[in-house]
Design the sequence.
């Protein structure tokens, strides 16, 4: 198992967001997290990346308990990439500097080498001509691809993607989806939170439905999205179909 | 179609002509109204019954020429003080602002002291700080007490450091928490996130008010004359006493304005650029 969450509990005051959640992710596996708004998808990803502290349970990365307070969170985060819904690029840095910041400052790689690697990636995603631009001058789809590249240049063991397409116009979604599908082909282990059931169906090996702070139902996309067992999953999907997002 | 082939349409040409005419008319109007206001002011001042006496005791060209070199010499001290105090106050302000952001129980005393400092020194008038530092500290008769000039400078640095710390803090707080989350998620430590992500954005945002405070500082540097060092104002005071004429003060005043002009111009330019950047982002 690359990632294994066991009985994870997370509360905000009296509000219990994750209530004994258990989820495993194997090597090269792509897991899609679905669930209503507020069901805790983002919270789970933030907990895995140690941006939020869990209140109970254990999260393991490659078997190591990363929720042990003696573990250095910075070294854990270096192995986990997280891409945010709102990109969160650094507006005062060029695209290239955004991408090379962590390789140079955290991983202490020579600047020239980090640049070459960044340019290679930008070439791959068709953004080489934007290397010197500032994020404000890029379209949403371009910014999101840069954000994904920024996470990838650290060669993470695990990539967490939080609704990476939800802020994008439909035409721009395609660019990002293509990129994620390619990553899957290369064997990247990924957990992605999404409201796009079509996206989940296309790229995920497994879909996990979050409800009341737990994984209520999980399995292959065709089963969970096509023939769900749990009534609450069915309700959720029915609402989504009504909204025209399936 | 290549750009060189583009010819503005008749409608666009009409617009261009109209705008050009409007611009010419605006310039003429501005010139005319300036001339009228200027003439009125001139008549009002020079026509005043006491104008001759005022001119003699404030605008005597002979005294101005005589005292200019000495006041300039004093200004050299102001200039050195300005550069040193501005840099030191900026550094102190930044340090205090960063200390105030530290979280965790270990840093409680640091945080509390930094907060106490910004609260008290923003309330304390600069003149009192200068008196306390320049006359109080030598009174202790400690070994190696620095000169009054240094102590006066330190008073300015301490007072302005408190203001600048608050400006920096406002800047730091205006950086959205998601920026820190993004930096941390890449594996950057708290210090690295501050240094490479938060502070550069914070400083850019508060550059206009920081520079504005520096302009205020350049004026207040003159207050050290109260403690004794012979700066431009002190020299002008001596001149006034010797000549029984206020012209040296006017000379010092004009020099201070000239000294401030470049700084003010830079401030305006930075403010304008910041506003443009912000508008471009939306
Ligand atoms: N920092 C916080 N303080 C208090 N409550 C929070 C905080 N972060 C999240 N929550 C709450 O936790 C719950 C889960 O939020 P979360 O963002 O994980 O949901 P989500 O499944 O990602 O929703 P969406 O699909 O809308 O992104 C919500 O009810 C939210 O209000
Ligand atoms: Mg979310």
Sequence:
């Amino acid at each position: 198992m690359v990632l294994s969450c066991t009985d994870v509990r997370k509360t905000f005051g009296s509000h219990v967001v994750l209530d004994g959640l258990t989820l495993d992710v194997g090597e090269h596996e792509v897991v899609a997290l679905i669930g209503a708004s507020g069901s805790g998808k983002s919270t789970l990803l933030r907990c895995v990346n140690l941006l939020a502290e869990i209140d109970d349970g254990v999260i393991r990365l490659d078997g190591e308990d990363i929720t042990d307070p003696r573990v250095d969170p910075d070294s854990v985060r270096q192995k986990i990439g997280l891409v945010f819904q709102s990109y969160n690029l650094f507006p005062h840095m060029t695209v290239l500097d955004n991408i090379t910041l962590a390789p140079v400052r955290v991983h202490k790689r020579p600047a020239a080498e980090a640049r070459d690697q960044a340019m290679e990636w930008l070439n791959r995603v068709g953004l080489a001509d934007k290397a010197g631009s500032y994020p404000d001058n890029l379209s949403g789809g371009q910014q999101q691809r840069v954000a994904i590249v920024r996470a990838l240049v650290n060669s993470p063991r695990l990539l967490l993607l939080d609704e990476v397409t939800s802020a994008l116009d439909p035409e721009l979604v395609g660019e990002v989806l293509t990129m994620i599908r390619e990553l899957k082909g290369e064997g990247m282990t990924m957990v992605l939170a999404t409201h796009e059931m079509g996206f989940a169906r296309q790229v995920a090996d497994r879909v996990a439905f979050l409800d009341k702070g737990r994984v209520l139902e999980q399995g292959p996309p065709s089963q969970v999205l096509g023939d769900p067992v749990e009534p609450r999953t069915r309700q959720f999907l029915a609402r989504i179909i009504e909204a025209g997002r399936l | 179609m290549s750009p060189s082939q583009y010819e503005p349409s008749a409608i666009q040409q009409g617009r261009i002509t109209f705008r050009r005419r409007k611009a010419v008319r605006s310039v003429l109007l501005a010139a005319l109204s300036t001339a009228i206001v200027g003439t009125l002011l001139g008549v009002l001042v020079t026509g005043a019954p006491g104008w001759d006496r005022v001119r003699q005791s404030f605008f005597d060209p002979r005294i101005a020429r005589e005292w200019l070199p000495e006041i300039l010499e004093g200004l050299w001290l102001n200039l050195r003080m300005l550069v040193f105090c501005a840099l030191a106050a900026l550094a102190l302000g930044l340090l205090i602002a960063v200390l105030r952001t530290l979280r965790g129980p270990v840093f409680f005393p640091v945080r509390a002291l930094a907060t106490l400092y910004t609260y008290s020194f923003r309330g304390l008038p600069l003149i009192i700080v200068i008196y306390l530092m320049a006359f109080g500290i030598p009174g202790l008769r400690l070994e190696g007490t620095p000169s009054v000039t240094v102590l006066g400078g330190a008073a300015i640095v301490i007072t302005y450091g408190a203001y600048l710390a608050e400006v920096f803090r406002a800047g730091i707080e205006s950086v959205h928490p998601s920026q820190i989350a993004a930096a941390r998620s890449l594996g950057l430590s708290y210090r690295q996130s501050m240094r490479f992500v938060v502070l550069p954005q914070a400083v850019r945002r508060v550059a206009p008010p920081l520079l504005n405070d520096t302009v205020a500082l350049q004026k207040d540097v003159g207050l050290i004359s109260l403690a004794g060092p012979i700066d431009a104002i002190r020299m002008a005071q001596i001149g006034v006493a010797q000549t029984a004429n206020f012209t040296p003060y006017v000379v010092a005043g004009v020099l201070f304005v000239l000294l401030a002009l470049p700084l003010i111009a830079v401030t305006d330019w930075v403010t304008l650029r910041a506003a443009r950047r912000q508008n471009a982002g939306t």
Q: What stands out?
A: The mean pLDDT of chain B is 89. Residues 7-36 of chain B form one domain. Residues A 41-42, 162-163, 193 surround magnesium ion (ligand 2) (CB under 6 Å). Chain B touches chain A through 19 residues (CB under 8 Å).
